[in-house]
Amino acid sequence: MFKKIICKNYEEVSLEAFKVMKEVLETEKAPVLGLATGSTPVGLYKNMIKDHKETGRSYKDILTFNLDEYVGLPKTHAQSYWTFMHENLFNYLDCPEENIHVPSGEGEDPEKNAREYEAELAKHTVSVQVLGIGSDGHIAFNEPGTPFESVTHVAELTEQTISDNARFFEGDKTQVPTKAVTMGLASIMRAKKIILIATGANKADAVYGMLRGEKTIECPASILQDHADVTVILDEAAAAKVAE
Ligand code: F6R
């Protein structure tokens, strides 16, 4: 079931997302947070950092599981998702490093990394999963055509996602890794609660497909139609096709 919130601007979107996160932090003693990278959740993470600084809330008992990581980048690479999460959130909280899980894209056998990550994830129930959405309807790196039953696996990035992400690699598409270790759609669906955030006109079609389109693997986010508790937080541009 979707609860849809349409906001005026990114600041408001980030505050609404934090309200849902805050409720989880306040109701669970040791919440398990599913986290995403990309531009969209940065404002939410800023609110979490502010919350920690200003209210003194401790994040030491949280466990975190990130959605994905590029294959072939060392975790300390400037564009790895491990680095992104540390620079945008973890370095500013009191969450111990051993509580943080980001899939590994390192080493000879990324499929094995994916299997091990899924096994660790399956020991827990994610309290709240934060998601962005790709302009092609992907969630995590589950691109169109990914089976709904998929668990953590190695995925090929599409041309569109490589182009979208080139902005993080000095605009150079050839620098963007072509594969990622990603939670699968079934892994994501196990979360108790989901916050999906989308902003900008380039997300409007994907948002329409997720909320109003046919449930099909051609729009991976449409699987969320089957989830019991999804809060979709949009700015006006991303909500353009689902406003009424
Ligand atoms: C990130 C992820 C991706 C992004 C999506 C939107 O961990 O899994 O699915 O959420 O590509 O990215 P942004 O927020 O940069 O538009």
Describe the global form.
globular
Q: Uncertain spans, ≥5 residues at pLDDT below 50? A: none
Give Rg in angstroms.
17 Å
Helix/strand/pairing class, anyone? alpha/beta
- Count the E strands: 10
How far the N terminus sits from the C terminus, by CA atoms, comes to 17 Å
Q: Which small-molecule ligands are present, each listed once?
A: fructose -6-phosphate
Q: Helix and strand string, N-terminal first?
A: EHEHEEHEHEEHEHEHE
Could you tell me the mean pLDDT? 97
In DSSP terms, counting alpha (H) and pi (I) runs of 4 or more, how many helices?
Answer: 7
| Order of strands across the main sheet | 1-10-9-6-2-3-5
Strand content: 15-25%
Question: What share of the residues lie within helices?
Answer: 25-40%
Question: Could you explain how this protein is built, in words?
Answer:
- Strand 9, helix 7 (about 205-210) and strand 10 form a beta-alpha-beta unit.
- This protein has a 7-stranded parallel beta sheet, with helices on one face. A 3-stranded antiparallel beta sheet has the order 4-8-7.
- Helix 1 crosses helix 2 (about 40-55).
- It is α/β, with parallel strands linked by helices and about 240 residues long.
- It is built from 7 helices and 10 strands.
- About 30% of the residues lie in helices and about 15% in strands.
- The model has no long low-confidence stretch (mean pLDDT about 95).
- The protein has helices at about 10-25, 40-55, 80-90, 110-120, 160-165, 185-190, 205-210, and strands at about 1-5, 30-35, 65, 70, 100, 130, 155, 180, 195-200, 230-235.
- The site of fructose -6-phosphate has 14 residues, from loops.
- Fructose -6-phosphate binds next to loops.
